[in-house]
Amino acid sequence: MHRRRVLLIDDEVHIIMVLARRLEKDGYEVHTAGDGVRGLETAERVRPDVVVTDLQMPRLSGVEVAQQLAASMPEVPVLLLTARGYVLGDYDIPQNVRECLPKPFSAREIVAKLDALLGVNADASEGSTPRIGPEAAPEDGKRVA
């Protein structure tokens, strides 16, 4: 059986690390890049089944990455991660962007979204997954200083 190949593109190392760990645990072959230019280079090399990219990154934005992928790999769906409250109206979102997910998010949410995009039955995961992102707060809603 073909392992689902995902490309994670984000300039925040901690997000890449947490997502990669969880996706590998869930059977994905994970490739990573720290910016849009490297992400496109990696995509050409590994031919991912799906791409997860941050919106705001140095060198190329997530939308620019998706636009270039739409031209070279239109069949590859893109999941776009956005900062909470960030308005996407200023961008021309290409059709290969299948979902926009605001930060913070849980790694479990990402796995479920990717499984749905790729038509995979998601396994019911027990326990909670920590939320990822700058506005992440504990379950009780209290901020940690």
Helix content: 25-40%
Terminal Cα span:
46 Å
Overall number of strands: 7
Strand content: 15-25%
Rg, alpha carbons: 15 Å
How many distinct helices?
A: 4
The general outline is globular
Order of helices and strands: EHEHEHEEEHE
Structural class: alpha/beta
The largest beta-sheet arranges its strands as 2-1-3-4-5
Describe the largest sheet. Answer: 5 strands, parallel
Uncertain stretches of 5 or more adjacent residues: 122-145
The average pLDDT score comes to 81
Provide the fold topology.
Layout: E1 5-9, H1 13-25, E2 29-33, H2 36-46, E3 50-54, H3 62-72, E4 78-82, E5 97-102, E6 105-106, H4 107-118, E7 131-132
Parallel strand pairs: 1-2, 1-3, 3-4, 4-5
Antiparallel strand pairs: 6-7
Helix pairs in contact: 1-4, 2-3
Can you characterise this structure?
- It is a single chain.
- By secondary structure, the chain is α/β, with parallel strands linked by helices.
- It contains four helices and seven strands, in the order E-H-E-H-E-H-E-E-E-H-E.
- The chain has helices spanning 13-25, 36-46, 62-72, 107-118, and strands at residues 5-9, 29-33, 50-54, 78-82, 97-102, 105-106, 131-132.
- The strands form two sheets. Strands 2-1-3-4-5 form a five-stranded parallel β-sheet, sandwiched between helices. Strands 6-7 form a two-stranded antiparallel sheet.
- Helix 1 packs across helix 4.
- The longest helix is centred in the first third of the chain and has 13 residues, at 13-25.
- Mean pLDDT is 81; it is low at 122-145.
